[in-house]
Amino acid sequence: MNLQVAPSLLAADFARLGEAVEIVNRSDASLIHIDVMDGMFVPNISVGFPVIASISRVAEKPLDVHMMVVDPGRFVGAVRDAGAHLMNVHYEACTHLNRVIASIHEAGMKAGVTLNPATPVGMLEDIIGDVDMVLLMSVNPGFGGQKFIPGTIAKVRRLHELIALSGSQALIEIDGGVDLNTAPALIEAGADILVAGSYVFKAPDPIRAIHDLRLLGENR
Ligand code: DX5
Ligand code: ZN
């Protein structure tokens, strides 16, 4: 399968969010990544359900909602009603992860589990068969524009092995500090989807930037 790109709207100008969604619509991105933060799980607050609902009315790509909130299981219905296709919840934020993943599926969405940089891939052993995606954070979540943590490359390899051994169909998504310099090693290690915020929306031509990133993963 070819590499997928998921532009993160966190790096867009929120006063011109519609234009940013339009850019993603016209690009060869596969998903739109939306970062929800509660000021508790991460030290920042971003956007909530009314904003996701507005985006979903104009978006032509599936919405990948990354929940950086305490106890995200409380919001499965709200995320679905806002128009999300995929809900990513942090391993570190769920006491009953198995139940949360099941409820995301029952709500009709794809389910992803997200790991902070310090959480080992091995913690996924008993959930990997139940998720559609694993999102590995390559920065500490909460802010765009941070420096990529190089240890993520080895982590992608370990996750790739775990997925192969378990027979899971889970896709590997990476989030944080992704650009044309950090992407090649991630792709080589087995990443399927790359989230990119600053790289895309701070570029002079975001559509071109998305295309260039995607090209790195052609015919691998
Ligand atoms: C960070 C968010 C990311 C963020 C990535 O907590 O989860 O999705 O937008 O931004 P860049 O690509 O600028 O590192
Ligand atoms: Zn994110």
Textual characterization of the structure:
It contains 8 helices and 8 strands. The chain has an 8-stranded parallel sheet with strand order 1-8-7-6-5-4-3-2. Strand 7, helix 6 and strand 8 form a beta-alpha-beta unit. D-xylitol-5-phosphate binds next to strand 2, strand 8 and helix 7.
Indicate the topology:
Blueprint: E1 4-7, H1 17-26, E2 32-37, H2 49-58, E3 63-68, H3 76-81, E4 86-90, H4 97-106, E5 110-115, E6 133-137, H5 152-166, E7 171-175, H6 183-189, E8 193-196, H7 198-201, H8 206-215
Parallel strand pairs: 1-8, 2-3, 3-4, 4-5, 5-6, 6-7, 7-8
The protein binds D-xylitol-5-phosphate (DX5) and zinc ion.
Side by side, the strands of the main sheet go 1-8-7-6-5-4-3-2
Mean pLDDT, nearest integer? Answer: 97
What percentage of amino acids are in beta strands? 15-25%
Q: What compounds sit in this structure?
A: D-xylitol-5-phosphate, zinc ion
Low-confidence stretches: none
Key traits:
single chain, 220 residues, alpha/beta, eight-stranded parallel β-sheet, 8 helices, globular, binds D-xylitol-5-phosphate, binds zinc ion
Please provide a brief summary of the model.
With 220 residues, the chain is α/β, with parallel strands linked by helices.
